[in-house]
UniProtKB/TrEMBL annotation:
Residues 42-184 form the FAS1 domain. This is FAS1 domain-containing protein. GO terms for cellular component: plasma membrane; side of membrane. The keyword Oxidoreductase does not apply. It holds the Pfam family Fasciclin. May be a cell surface adhesion protein. The lineage of its organism: Eukaryota, Viridiplantae, Streptophyta, Embryophyta, Tracheophyta.
Length: 272
């Protein structure tokens, strides 16, 4: 039995200025107030990626390649917006081969551009977007990604990389920032990936029938594998966890609050 769920994912970025909102208070006889134009929130990507994460490696690459300017410019462009897939620091540190060490500056730039789409997509949009596979990224035509929606989780394929969106860091039109498990490696740089090592057994992405008591031992690298898998783990496991990341930026004494949305699946049924 398949469970289709729509995750209502909303990222909220609030800028609370210390100065009170200068709304006219108290004189009800003012002429009809024009509908306050909802000024699109300006998202400073550098600040956002500094606070969330840890995304320091990606941010360093963004800055060293100057791609941050391209992305910020696009983020300011409220017509199209931007969608950025950000690998965590450990995704970079666990990257063994191919490695990024021998890339030219130009290739590095393309690799970082490869992590973004020049348009805002909410998570719910990826189901539709998948019919357009492969989807061109900010790096251009041959730098394309495949998207698939598996029960509400967005899976991303680059040929070399197969990963998924694990967290929505920020998703308010025009800016979406999603955390991914792995660095996206384009075929346009690394060539065609070698054929996969003879797989012991094809692991079905979706079990044909639920409740098959497969022990699901993926990569033996899970330090704490909670043995609390009941037959209903599939249902229990889909959930959304919201928490607030608060940080101060000394930027005019403003405070940034990020509503962070974690998409839980697999064995994360336990509490945190
Ligand atoms: C974003 O914030 C950083 C540091 O807080 C600042 O250096 C940078 O100029 C800001 N960028 C924009 C586009 O405002
Ligand atoms: C983006 O918009 C902010 C605020 O309007 C502005 O300070 C910044 O220079 C813009 N950055 C780019 C790259 O367009
Ligand atoms: C990087 O270059 C060094 C020397 O030029 C070479 O020994 C090494 O194998 C290269 N690494 C990769 C991943 O290509
Ligand atoms: C997906 O595409 C269909 C047909 O093209 C359209 O009717 C629907 O509104 C789209 N859904 C979203 C979430 O964009
Ligand atoms: C995307 O999927 C198509 C067909 O499903 C495949 O031919 C292509 O190699 C895939 N591209 C990437 C980058 O994964
Ligand atoms: C369970 O969690 C571990 C580490 O948190 C992870 O490596 C593993 O892939 C997860 N398993 C599933 C089925 O999601």
């Amino acid at each position: 039995m398949e469970i289709t769920m729509i995750f209502m994912v909303s990222g909220v970025l609030m800028l609370l200025s210390s100065s009170a909102n200068a709304q006219a208070v108290g004189s009800p006889l003012l002429s009809p107030t024009p509908a306050p134009a909802p000024a699109p929130d300006f998202v400073n990507l550098t600040d956002l990626l500094t606070v969330a994460g840890p995304f320091h490696t990606f941010l360093n690459y963004l800055e060293s390649t100057k791609v941050i300017q391209t992305f910020q410019n696009q983020a300011n462009n409220t017509e199209q917006g931007i969608t950025i897939f950000v690998p965590k620091d450990e995704a970079f540190s666990s990257l063994k081969k191919p490695s990024l060490t021998n890339l030219t500056q130009e290739q590095l730039k393309s690799l970082i551009l490869f992590h973004a789409l020049p348009k805002y997509y909410a998570l719910a949009d990826f189901k539709n977007l998948s019919v357009a596979n492969p989807v061109s990224t900010f790096a251009g035509g041959q730098y394309a990604l495949n998207f698939t929606d598996v029960s509400g989780t967005v899976h991303i394929g680059s040929g070399w990389t197969s990963t998924k969106v694990t967290s929505s860091v920020h998703s308010t039109d025009p800016v979406a920032v999603y955390q991914v498990d792995k660095v996206l490696l384009p075929e346009a740089i690394f060539g065609t990936p070698p054929p996969p090592a003879p797989a012991p057994a094809p692991t079905p992405d979706i079990a044909p029938v639920a409740d098959a008591p497969t022990s699901l031992t993926r990569d033996g690298s899970s330090p704490k594998s909670s043995p609390t898998k009941s037959s209903s783990y599939r249902i229990m496991s889909w959930g959304v966890l919201n928490y607030l990341v608060l940080a101060m930026s000394d930027n005019g004494g403003r405070q940034i609050a990020i509503l962070r949305t974690e998409l839980l699946d697999g064995n994360s049924t336990g509490c945190m």
